[in-house]
Design a protein that fits this description.
This protein is of the alpha/beta class. Helix content is 41%, strand content 20%. It is built from 5 helices and 5 strands; from the N terminus they run E-H-E-H-E-H-E-H-E-H.
Length: 127
């Protein structure tokens, strides 16, 4: 599909990456899965994502640190970043949005609704 949106998903848990792959494959998305923030930083420029989905709690480099490092790359300054987290308290959501995320998706997410949710967020970001 020529109009596929490129999604970089950074998630340390393999089973959650598999669910996301199942949920988004064939839904108009090209997916690049990374197991860590470090891996995402190595691969992001070659992939040129339209959106980045970022787990908050990861060993090594956590989601907020990964977001900060991604924003240091000029090509990634404007790419929408969405946090995925099981910690979904209102004060935490506002903290994540304050870091520069465009939205927060709670985990576990509904695999049947993930593609529509991502399309809706992309629509808001692209005006």
């Amino acid at each position: 599909m020529a109009d596929e949106k490129r999604i970089l998903y950074v998630e340390d848990e393999a089973d959650i990456r598999e669910v996301a792959e199942f949920a988004l494959e064939g839904e108009g998305f090209e997916l690049l899965l990374c197991a860590s923030g470090e891996e995402a930083l190595q691969k992001v420029l070659n992939f040129s994502p339209d959106m980045i989905l970022l787990d908050v709690m990861m060993p090594g480099m956590d989601g907020p640190t990964t977001l900060k490092r991604l924003r240091e790359l000029p090509a990634m300054e404007k790419v929408p970043i969405v946090f995925l987290t099981a910690k979904i308290q209102p004060n935490e959501i506002s903290q994540f949005l304050g870091l520069g995320a465009v939205d927060v998706i709670s985990k576990p997410f509904d695999a049947m609704k993930l593609a529509d949710l991502i399309r809706e967020i992309l629509g808001r970001c692209n005006g």
